[in-house]
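[job 0412] stage=complex_fold ligand=zinc ion status=START
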Amino acid sequence: MLRKWLCQADVKIAIEPVDPVLIKSGYATMDGADMVPVSTFKDGKRIYYFPGTSLKGVLRSHLERIARTLKQGSVCLPYYGPKKKNIAIPVAEEKNSHSCGYRSRDGKDDEPASVAYADSCAACRLFGSLKFGGRFSIGDAYPLDGHGPTLESRNGVGIDRFTGGTVPGVLFDLQVLVGGKFEASLRLTNFELWQLAALNLLLVDLKDEMITIGSGRSRGLGRVRSTVTSYRLTYVSPVSHLDGLYQLATPQEQQDYSLHGWTPPTPIDLPDAQSHGLRQQYDLKDDWSQTLQTLTPAFESFLQWHGGPQGAVTGQGT
Ligand SMILES: [Zn+2]
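[job 0412] stage=complex_fold status=DONE, emitting structure tokens
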């Protein structure tokens, strides 16, 4: 079924930094700052941008936090593999929360994609794991024309990890991006309704400045405000109201992939469709949050129903 294309959500957001932002390039410059933001060249000019991989990581960890708040142990700890088995996981409810990427139902590493999907926690089903690509993607966020950020310098002082005092002679410079307006595209393919609900929770928290990006968050960097500028749902054939993967799949697929059969209390109407070749596109415009409001409980419903990462830890860690 994952080889089919059945439905997709495409969302564009405008990201406006509230605080200065630093997403480190990882390279120190020869003559300047020790930490500089990521950049590339476009039309011969240096452009600063936020890499999609960084944004995806931030959104994943924020969603994991929401999921753990709603149900302890409902998502895995992506960095805990078999080689860290002996390292104590601090929270009792998460003792068995090793990454879904290292888990297997029958002790086999070559289980079919449907089994990997069925056993994966909410975060891995959305964002992927070592076994599974995930349904969610986000591109690099580039500045909109005429809304480039300004580059400013900040100084930092090295802190002694034992005394907590400053280390004489250890100073570092960093460059941060101030202001600007960036645009990023988010995509959710073959979404289950609870996954669309999870995406919407992230969009609301992005709007409410709950999500910070980049380095130095404890020193007041990285707060951003994001607004949705476009929200479109696309299906391969016309639908009379909002459907997710469960409604579009065959009974066998529902079972093999362990799709969650949550449905909204009343069917959610969609605006008129526009045909694009085979595809039917529904543009939710500014009404997306009202239109999809009754979807919100689907996320918690999935967490309770699925129960968290499944299968035993068997894979070989790196
Ligand atoms: Zn997982």
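The CA atoms of residues 101 and 130 lie 5 Å apart.
[job 0412] exit 0
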